[in-house]
Amino acid sequence: MQKGHRHPLSHMIAEINRIFSGLGFVFAEGPEAETEHYNFDMLNVPKDHPARDMQDTFWFKDSDVSEPTVLRTHTSPVQARYMESHEPPIRVIVPGKVFRNESTDATHEAQFYQLEGLYVDKGVHLGHLKGTIEYFFSKFFGGETEVRFRPSFFPFVEPGVEVDMMLKGSDSKLANKWIEVMGAGMVHPNVLKEAGIDAEKFSGFAFGMGIDRLAVMKYGIEDVRDLYTGDLRFVNQF
Amino acid sequence: MKVVHDWLKEYIGDEAPTATEIAELLTFHSFEIEEVVSVGEDDVIDVDVLPNRSADCLSHRGIAREISTLTGKSLVYDPLATKPEMSETNKLKITIENAEACRHFDLALITGVTVKESPEWLQRRLKAIGQRSINNVVDATNYVMFGLGQPTHVYDADKFLKDGDVWHFGVRLAKGGETVTTLGGDEYQVDETIQVITNEADGSYVGLAGIKGGAHAELDGKTTNIILEAGNFAPSLTRKASQKLRLQTDASKRFENGVSTNIILYAIAELTRLILEIAGGELEGYAHARPVDINNQSVSVTLSHMNALLGLTLIEGEVEDIFERVGFVYTKTAEGAWEVTASFERTDITIAEDVIEEVGRIYGYDKVVSVVPEAVPVVEYNHRHYYSELVRDVLVANGFSEVITSSFRKKDQIQLLNALASDKSYMRSSLIKNITESLDKNAAFTDLLGAEDTRVFEIGTVFTKDEDTVKEHMSLSFGVRLKPSGYSGKEDKVLQGIVTALQEALGVDINPALEKGVAEIDFSNIISSLPPVTGYDSVAVAEEISYKAFSSYPSMSRDIALWVTEGTTAEEVMQVLGEHSGELCVRTSLFDEFTKDGRTSLAFRLVFQAPDRTLTDEEVNAIMESIYKVAAGKDWDVR
After folding, report:
1. Which residues of chain B have a CB within 8 Å of the CB of A15?
2. Is residue B542 predicted with pLDDT exceeding 70?
3. B440, A229 in Cβ contact below 8 A?
4. Which residues of A touch B53 (CB under 8 A)?
5. Do domains B2-71 and B299-367 have the same CATH topology?
């Protein structure tokens, strides 16, 4: 019997888990149909923030749910859920499917996979964020990588940064150039407080990136929509 | 926000860094740069201003101030530096209905202006950011919006009906059924959720507050007396109104993100100054209504907190130098903390972490040193992931390939409130249909993929309706298709074998639902009965994968069977076939082989496909003919 093929996203998620579990990060998960409370409120997203609008977020009908519920727009609500039910030190990753109500093209799908990372402990700082991301990429792409930060803004972190990475000295097409890969930052004190963590005592970093985008980088996939067509002409190459 | 280099120089001075230097500085300390382009003689920098900095940086002055912070050199001209002296006039009157919705509203009356073409420098700057020049007075209002970030509007005073001997402006929520005609002549239906500017003399609506000025009392070549207007409107109200009216403007974009209430008087004074300079006339005076003032509060922050969060070892002097560059006023408390207050236009500094971010980004994130956290043991294992991996191993070993399909369906149990498309408005409650569709599609590729049959599986979330809530669980579905023509009836037997293999691996009965060659189980339910996980199995190192974009054009198969002399191997024949079948042949496989009377029969299937078109029979037949000729030359008999 000829062997079948794993989906590239499964390959990558297993690999991501292997790398992060090596540092003690727990593979956490949460619901895809998420309440507004966890998807937005707990993450310091203002009540009238445009991200909550219908044109960005899929909402369930009031008649189907007991409280306002969306298809989660990011894996970040799992941060809040995990922090509520656990005491620091906390190290988690959350690979999972997320949804955005936006038109699709070769680099955008209405459903895609995201990887969230969270580390909360005494004395966690931006250097740990940089070190962790560098460690991950070096293992994931199998070569020395360098990471740099640029200022950015997300309601759930402060400071917030955009992360670029550069794969050094390999012969990959990606090598030796800066590529924008994720948003990250230090967990906003409001997010820690909301989840019942003493923000005076603990600090944390969080990051979120598209796993689909990692697939584009790792395998040279040209159209992310191919990941979700159930087409074996695509899957059987992995 | 498009920023003209020459315009920045008005504030920074002639010693300003070049456009490229500015782009580099802003990229690593402030904002992403979309591009730097030349428009005529001007360099234009397209700055992606972050949402928390819209209040101060959707303006040339704001960007100039940011550059001044980064270079440490003061601005040569700062319109926000000195509070303007403002004479009042009793000819203007303002009534604000809702103070929360309209925090400030200022007017100015100027008489004796000459409306004409703008001076060349003004036309050029506006043109560089893609704005059309109208006339000197209107251009001045745009110049102040893009210069200082405060939208303004201007009326012809003589066309604006007076209330007795005063011009009386109102700001209020509209009544339903009314319309507002904006500049350019478009008419908008307004309702009680939309704030409008009114002429209180007759109650008419003269503008959409915070979004667009009305066509009422529009300027023309004969205009001599003008009224300037500047307001501060609530962000959320403006955003909702702009969405409802489907009218997004440079003004609404600014109010949506919040404009400092304090900037208004500087802006109307600057606008007055500019109009007197380029259109002449005389200022009669101002009128102000300021029901709500929003002022920055001081924020307490310590050096140790700062270093602990940034992972830096800054000293007091370095931090205070940054405070001064950014324009923060600070004092030191007895306990050693700083009390920091940001300048009024910076509405984003409200907690210690905001101050810390300012120091970090201005100092430079490149100075943050990487520290990999010390490894600790994993405290919890993910059951779902562990058992999914186990199932993947079993299914892949049995020839199944994994798919991840759409969570949306055309029709199912739960409909979304807002769907992407009519065929994607429901959430899937089962994977069976998705797997069936995947089998239908992939069965046609059997030859192309060199497979004997088609086998796919998916592990994914499905959504079901349960009384007053949406339930979700992980479903596992796998299906087989033996013939490209469709379900043959023999697939269920294959599935039974797979079920047995899965049951052996998981150690429990799984009793799937079977539907025409597709099985599905509630995987979450199965997992809950499985033993706890105490460690992850090692991840198999993936073989070197070189992905190639696949052709979406149909493939065509041809079989060829040959009698060859005993001793001639299939590999030899395959090599010859490979040499002559050309680039369009994407796969050659041996599917039959037997020996009889000292001769061997070899049967091959050749699959042809083009990357850019559908192949014709003639094309493929021609290739086959050339192969037959080669075979004849080798003394191979085509059967």
Report:
1. 539, 542
2. no
3. no
4. 153
5. yes
Q: Which helix (H) or strand (E) segment is B387 a member of?
A: helix B383-397
| Residue A235, domain member (yes or no) | no
From B379, B442, B470, residue closest to A33, measured CB to CB = B470
CATH of domain B2-71: 3.30.56.10
CATH number for the domain that contains residue A128: 3.30.930.10
Whether the CB of B362 is below 8 Å from some CB of chain A: the reply is no
At residue B294 the predicted structure's pLDDT band, cuts being 50, 70 and 90, is confident
What are the residue ranges spanned by the domains of chain B?
2-71, 92-289, 299-367, 383-528, 556-638
| Domain B556-638 in CATH 3.30.70.380 | yes
pLDDT of residue B579: 84
Residue listed under structure tokens 């042949």: B585
Q: Is B336's pLDDT higher than 70?
A: yes
Helix segments in B444-533, DSSP class H: 446-449, 491-506, 523-528
Distance in angstroms (rounded) separating the CA atoms of residues B30 and B42: 23
The architecture CATH gives domain B383-528: 2-Layer Sandwich (3.30)
Query: ipTM, 2 decimals?
Result: 0.95
User: B234, B230, B160, B146: which is closest to B199 by C-alpha?
Assistant: B160
pTM of the model: 0.90
Residue linked to tokens 């949506």: B256
> Can you tell me the distance from the alpha carbon of B325 to that of B65, in angstroms, rounded to the nearest whole number?
10
pLDDT at B543: 61
Q: A-chain residues within 8 Å CB-CB of B554?
A: none
- Which domain does A147 fall in, by range? 8-229
Residue B182 has pLDDT above 70, yes or no: yes
What six digits make up the tokens of B67?
A: 């550059």
The dotted CATH code for B299-367 is: 3.30.56.10
Low-confidence ranges of chain A (pLDDT < 70): none
Give the minimum alpha-carbon distance from B385 to chain A in angstroms, rounded to a whole number.
8
Question: What architecture is domain B92-289?
Answer: 3-Layer(bba) Sandwich (3.50)
Question: Contact at 8 Å (CB) between B114 and B279?
Answer: yes
Mean pLDDT of all residues in B155-179: 93
